[in-house]
Protein 1
Amino acid sequence: MQYQNLRERVCAANREIDRVRLAILTWGNASEVDRLSGVFAIKPSGVDYDALTPEEISVISLASGEKVAGVLNPSSDTATHLHLYRAFPQITGIAHTHSPAATAWAQAGRAIPCYGTTHADTFYGPVPCTRPLTCEEIESAYELNTGRVIAEHFHMHSLNPLEIPGVLVAAHAPFTWGASAWQAVINARILEEVARIAASAEALNPGVTPVDQFLLDKHYLRKHGAAAYYGQGGDPGDRIVNDKSRGHR
Amino acid sequence: MQYQNLRERVCAANREIDRVRLAILTWGNASEVDRLSGVFAIKPSGVDYDALTPEEISVISLASGEKVAGVLNPSSDTATHLHLYRAFPQITGIAHTHSPAATAWAQAGRAIPCYGTTHADTFYGPVPCTRPLTCEEIESAYELNTGRVIAEHFHMHSLNPLEIPGVLVAAHAPFTWGASAWQAVINARILEEVARIAASAEALNPGVTPVDQFLLDKHYLRKHGAAAYYGQGGDPGDRIVNDKSRGHR
Amino acid sequence: MQYQNLRERVCAANREIDRVRLAILTWGNASEVDRLSGVFAIKPSGVDYDALTPEEISVISLASGEKVAGVLNPSSDTATHLHLYRAFPQITGIAHTHSPAATAWAQAGRAIPCYGTTHADTFYGPVPCTRPLTCEEIESAYELNTGRVIAEHFHMHSLNPLEIPGVLVAAHAPFTWGASAWQAVINARILEEVARIAASAEALNPGVTPVDQFLLDKHYLRKHGAAAYYGQGGDPGDRIVNDKSRGHR
Amino acid sequence: MQYQNLRERVCAANREIDRVRLAILTWGNASEVDRLSGVFAIKPSGVDYDALTPEEISVISLASGEKVAGVLNPSSDTATHLHLYRAFPQITGIAHTHSPAATAWAQAGRAIPCYGTTHADTFYGPVPCTRPLTCEEIESAYELNTGRVIAEHFHMHSLNPLEIPGVLVAAHAPFTWGASAWQAVINARILEEVARIAASAEALNPGVTPVDQFLLDKHYLRKHGAAAYYGQGGDPGDRIVNDKSRGHR
């Protein structure tokens, strides 16, 4: 099988979406890019997670957007993933879910304020919410334009996609990313938990305010960058993440 | 066993209601019609899902409403299913659940507005809520009148049951339908997820507004009709759905 | 073992509390009375459900309230059960849980209005909430007085415990009852689901009103009494309930 | 292996955090002190629960705060645990989770009022919420200062850590403690359930008031102290707790 390792990793990441209940039915997909080979691998469209095999994973050219391996149709969101890989050269994996709490914030059209350390550990500021797509953007090249609206938001607000590894698309749902498809799914889990806790915090205290900048700095930088001291050194969580994506449980 | 294939399919769909927690105890039922044979098969009344066998599934004449196979009493909601099969000749399967989020909207007496793409993928507009039944409708032929009130709502509002594959009965619970009993249960899962997310979106933003018509069009038509491009071609989700209803996991 | 059948039934009902997550840790207990023998069996105090054996179930004299079999201390709520068996001669089993949605209504000090058919199928009116106990009632014979306050509420409001098989004790939690310990646990499950859906319905529509009396009549009497037509005849759900309480899954 | 029994107990308690879903990913840690040996054992940083072994558990000197056994880096929250063991000589185990309902109260910056008996059984008053840490406290010795702010709160309000076995750190999450690592995790479960029910009670009745002092006294003292009569005698829950921490299920 061509791109075997990449497809196995992407298959495992997609199955994880189902295992941790980030999407019902086939409502989510994960991909990972191999920039040296100039391709990314992504879930096929409308196929159940529990029957998914590496052979069924589609492989797409980063240059042309055409399928280069796999017999099934790739995810209908493939053009969004393609645009994000082009717009954000720093990222290696993407996950798109419809996890309920994060999707509720997206439907409410609201960014998620940073109310606590669980948020600050991963997202160095609010999780942004894009503007709605226009009629024109929706009627032609919808999935591509979804990627464009995300990239536009990060560009206009000077956000670093490594520091804010996710976004809510208004009236739609979250996209997250990271150093691998697996890490993108991990970030989707974190986003869901953060979204759920933030909604409850607002219900308990309508006047709740975001954390101070110094708390945000402390928690984010404790896990990321040169001065990080969480975990066992190296890429954060790398040892465990790799184990898992090889099927270790 | 008479109608073996139909009864096996209906048994699998009913067990799925339990597996995905759309009803506790015996609070749900699914049926499927075979229009060539002029019968539909439905869950027996008050029997647990985990012990349910195809032999226990009741078979009912579409013409007379009488039981033609099965020794147990059919679901007490049989007259509702019967009326819906007669009123909506386009549908082949029906599911009735009391999934908590959808039931809360029904008890609140509110249609579910379309706040996002997960809704638009399946329901081409708000999920409607019927008027309450009158005293007369409840005191005689209650279950039949439940079907009538549903059909009346779709007729009065010119709704196409293929485009809006479900409804909330006021003060009661949801009914969904589709191209098979299995697909009706899938639609019940989607309705529950949509109901849950919509309630959370309203809590996060009391001024949330429904999606634009062009977004609704895009998402619905991406999955349904001649221009659909989601999935692997053919009836949407058909390959996987059939696998599942044959017991594949 | 003395009272073997009774203790096996009570052990199974208590384990069911845990299996369906009506209580965490040891926060629930179920009992069943054998009125001919003049005893009831109840969970021992503070013992985990998953290790519980019939031998560990305590047996209590209905006349004296003294333990007549079992080496462990009976539930600290034994005096409440005893008083309810004496006050409500129609009932055979009792369950006490701290399921979260029902307990929230109890802590809120509110009866649960009947907002829908799931409620009406089992509770022939609102699920009542007692008055708080006084300082005197709490400081002496607290558990006995808990039973007294429940019975007082039913007496003062002329409620029939067979028609309203449960209650919320203010600032505390629910008690439910039925024709067996198993049925009492079933009613605790129903109460939890009803409580959860009612809370969501109020959030979705603060002006929601209880169902009409004729809908309440229809649904309750469809399942209970001489004209019942739900299920397979005989005691409602009896066949399945008995299977389950014998360990069938 | 050095400190084998202690590390096995701490490993089991950490795995329990995962089993009962008090934290996703690696978002929680439990520790236990052996005051005779002058050490405490704690989870290593950033390691998954399901692969955790006793050998991986770090052992820390209570006097110096230095690691005395184990090759992995200890939890980044080690300095918080260390300070709590020094400030609260009565406690033997500590758990830190990010369970969603308790964390929402922490992010809302609110103590959890005692609205019912489930709360009163374990917490002899509101579960307090600390003040936010200052910029200075966060920028240097953050984790140590987290412990200091907790101890300061208990000291200033004359709270007894045995009577209030947990706290919410503002904008962060809960810490709980007890007579063992296992008991600290049990208290974290109780806190989560209490937090969840209290939030629902407020939503159902915005005017809900805390329980009377005499109800608080009754329930707390029914389980704790010389006059306790819940359970089977001895340390409350001791028999079962010990079984569990030895891997009994």
Note: The first helix of chain D runs from residue 4 to 19.
Protein 2
Amino acid sequence: MRFFSDNAAAAHPKVIEAIAQSNRLDTAYDGDAWSARLDGAFSALFETEVRAFWVATGTAANCLALAALCRPFGGIFCHRDAHIEVDEAGAPGFFAHGAKLMLLDGPGAKIDPGDLSAAIGRIRKDVHQVQPHALSITNASEYGLAYRAAEVAALGAVAREHGLGFHMDGARFANAIVSTGESPADMTWRTGIDALSFGFIKNGGLNAECLVLFKTELADEIAVRRKRAGHLSSKGRMLAAQILALLEDGLWLDNARAANAAAQALAGAASDRLAYPVEANEIFLRVTDGEAAGLRAMGFDFYDWGPGQIRLVTSWDQDGGDVDRLAQAIAAL
Amino acid sequence: MRFFSDNAAAAHPKVIEAIAQSNRLDTAYDGDAWSARLDGAFSALFETEVRAFWVATGTAANCLALAALCRPFGGIFCHRDAHIEVDEAGAPGFFAHGAKLMLLDGPGAKIDPGDLSAAIGRIRKDVHQVQPHALSITNASEYGLAYRAAEVAALGAVAREHGLGFHMDGARFANAIVSTGESPADMTWRTGIDALSFGFIKNGGLNAECLVLFKTELADEIAVRRKRAGHLSSKGRMLAAQILALLEDGLWLDNARAANAAAQALAGAASDRLAYPVEANEIFLRVTDGEAAGLRAMGFDFYDWGPGQIRLVTSWDQDGGDVDRLAQAIAAL
Amino acid sequence: MRFFSDNAAAAHPKVIEAIAQSNRLDTAYDGDAWSARLDGAFSALFETEVRAFWVATGTAANCLALAALCRPFGGIFCHRDAHIEVDEAGAPGFFAHGAKLMLLDGPGAKIDPGDLSAAIGRIRKDVHQVQPHALSITNASEYGLAYRAAEVAALGAVAREHGLGFHMDGARFANAIVSTGESPADMTWRTGIDALSFGFIKNGGLNAECLVLFKTELADEIAVRRKRAGHLSSKGRMLAAQILALLEDGLWLDNARAANAAAQALAGAASDRLAYPVEANEIFLRVTDGEAAGLRAMGFDFYDWGPGQIRLVTSWDQDGGDVDRLAQAIAAL
Amino acid sequence: MRFFSDNAAAAHPKVIEAIAQSNRLDTAYDGDAWSARLDGAFSALFETEVRAFWVATGTAANCLALAALCRPFGGIFCHRDAHIEVDEAGAPGFFAHGAKLMLLDGPGAKIDPGDLSAAIGRIRKDVHQVQPHALSITNASEYGLAYRAAEVAALGAVAREHGLGFHMDGARFANAIVSTGESPADMTWRTGIDALSFGFIKNGGLNAECLVLFKTELADEIAVRRKRAGHLSSKGRMLAAQILALLEDGLWLDNARAANAAAQALAGAASDRLAYPVEANEIFLRVTDGEAAGLRAMGFDFYDWGPGQIRLVTSWDQDGGDVDRLAQAIAAL
């Protein structure tokens, strides 16, 4: 019974079906009929004109965006626990040619606007210190918290005041949207986001994420950078097809709802052990080593997350019986 | 009737089937059961111990290899018409941090060992001139010629003499193997190749290529560089599954045989118009603008390739009737 | 009797004196009184508002300019024999993060506007091929030819038409100005130059060159890049002092006049052996190996420059007697 | 009366004299007679065979060393207050192609071996997290503390255990040597240092630092990287001459002794206000805003260093009367 990662879950059957359907000769790269529909589909979803680029991984989406928002000699604010800082092997430094990640603290891997302002204030405005060019936040956060649109807007105001580009790592964007009930538009460009890494792989996709540009004047540059990073697939239609399948009839929302609901069921059984509020599909529990061992002995798979803490992640296809069993086991600890 | 690119062809049904079969929960990234079989499968094929890494594009395979074989301050010899020079948006400069491509001429996009030696000899051995660190060849070449193992060995000898890493871009490796009848081992590590970009996408695959390391001590570095470039897919099993499907029962060779045979059928009808010998699945024909227009009016799709020349490419799934019709049309010009 | 390089000549006594005079406590980096005078001095010289940055080497001046004029994913046109291509250890690729040098031919290391246009025309306007962002020329050229302002303007028109930044490597700018009689303004910004590497080191300076920006909006970026490349000297006043000493009373022009005159004296004695017209302070002579050996046996130092050719370079402090002796020796060959 | 930076002080008269003496034709770059003496001079000083490279700035020395000790995909441990992190405009990320600085805390900008071990232990050994390749310490530290050889050795042991290269930023190496009485050999290679940025500019030099390699197999690479970064001066003899002048008769030690003594005189008058022990030539004092204003009104120049703290720096040429006056003023606060 696996609760270790949404990353490793199966893709939704409609995604596999879409790949099969897209498997016929078409123009190579992103000149095909499927890829051509992306801009329109995302523009409709976000209620504004956007440019949408499929890529194969979240790291690629994040770092292409950051490279376009931050010159090589600039800095990017992010949380100390951000995926781009902790889990991408230094990819931001690679894609952005040595640009510097500037780390902020904050509970639950969320950034506070006041902390951001203060950090900017501590940087001398001279050539000796790296000047910030961009801000990146993760929504839902690495600890399963969802920024509300108003919170994003407050950060966006600071970013705008200081001329920072604003990126959202939305590896679990769907979970955040479902959790907060905010509209995709309110959560992004209306609150100042320039570029969104819109995650599908953790939410029923196979290997397609989408980089959505609200700052559309970056589109030409992103297209070149994507190719230059080896991310322009010649049969890109199979990436577009996955994304379109998940957008259709709101499948992406259904999947996220299922994952979030499973997380809520677990949270309900463990309210006194929660390290963070459960707002998306991740649950962080305080347990003893013995308790963790006990759960594992019962067949539950999950990661340790520092001393005395474990992480449970639920997926779009999480088995309901497994969730019930785990909820009971936690309650019985 | 399309003869413009093997790049855009459909994937083989067994590849799609393999993707569907691999679509269940497993360990993420390359820890899954499919990915774990790659080293063994390629070691068997190449009759030596190798390390094999799936990646999503040929550009990624090429440039990860080059970055490992050439320090940022070094140079990489390649042909002036090499894909890495002409069609990868400067990706070698990106992945290898500003390393320099050093261009050689030679008919049919093949490199002559004497020309390579001469070029090395012209470089002053001082800090002012970039020193070469690596050599990259394409087999089959960008003009559809296949290096024989002995030719590769002659280049390998020069490379070894000067301490150059040796990379083969095998986007059409299958076509070269079928064309020459050489063994994969003879064509690669036995003649000095350190790293091979083994192409599957143009030969029935969907979006999986394989970087095969004969210089296995580079494996740890490649693993890190792959992640850092955003090329470590979380559901990598779907990439491994494609590759394994094509290796099984020699499907990769069957596919290449079909493509090469179609090319030979066209070449036979156009022997007096061939710009280069046809040894793989590409045919370059001298035609007038009027003749090209005539062929297009008959429904044949292909690219112009410089003035007075067109390129025809055949794929693993090329329709036999289309080939016959084009052969007749060319013969009738 | 040395004719091998102006690079290795002594500095002018006034330069040494200026260093000594600047040697007292002042604000560090470029906040000192000497550095503060550079913008004004060069703005007066060029008859327009410019920004001027001292750096320690010509390579630094060139590559800082190129990094500001060319994004990492772009290309820079230059001559195949340009210093940035041949003699800077790949520094453009380093400073500009993998940007590509795009090589042009042309007699005497000069670029022809028609050739430039044709080269631009051959590049497909897609994401697969590197798109040009900048053009760099060397004046006087690596073979001692001086572009006239009209020639620069013709190149500038092509650059402007295609949105290319335009850089001039003026390691021997003084020699070109003296040779052509053009004004500094006509030779640069009036004909489209955005940034000039204004050379002093080969012309009586010790270790100070000046990067002059006509496109002044790049100044902030250049200031940061200079620091980031380790080129912001804490006692930068000693660099500024050298430059100011050479600008004062036209010393830079006097020095170049002396070097050019020495070159003319040699050229006059060797008119039937000249590989290129002598327009600055370099002379390329066709000689046999025996003749070269004979000259060396008489005590003359110079470089071989390919088979059957030698290079002679004259400096601001070239001994007149040495020049006469060499002229006679050449005439007597 | 200036106490704001040793960076901005005058050069020692013997340094200026040496520059003048070296000002005659010689071989260019580092082929001259002065540069040729460096390896020997530093090998004698360090009692082992070293390779020594002049460069124009401490940033260049530091970052060339780090680029050679850390691959682009690796990390470099340093203190959060290290010059390379705080004051070099991201130069390590530029020179080392996106390598990551990994920050450690510790009083007085010194790193504790236990903290280092713990930080290494927290990094997962997988491809998702940047793996450390190097360690850099500053001696004397940014807060004027001097590591003892035994402390360096303890760090060196950790570095060796984990395969980390070990770099010392010795911008104030002379002050540390004088302060501790350790031998240069004990302070560096005998305790595990691979590369030392040996500072001269803050200690009587003008614009020459020396990168000393104990790991001599990096010499060829450093030579190339220096050129590629635009740091190979054509009249490098003037840099070598400065260094040799300071090494001669221990002038570098005399200068540091003078600066340290001045610092001690100030420290003696302010013992109850010291934020850190005074072990080199920097004094950090706790003062109120009013007290700082009072000192400035009396003509003393210095920097504020965070709220309620000022930094005083003494130089080799600090006026004794000024020191006495400042000591009295502080005592009278």
Note: The beta strands of chain D are 51-55, 74-79, 100-104, 131-138, 165-170, 195-198, 209-213, 282-286, 303-304, 309-313.
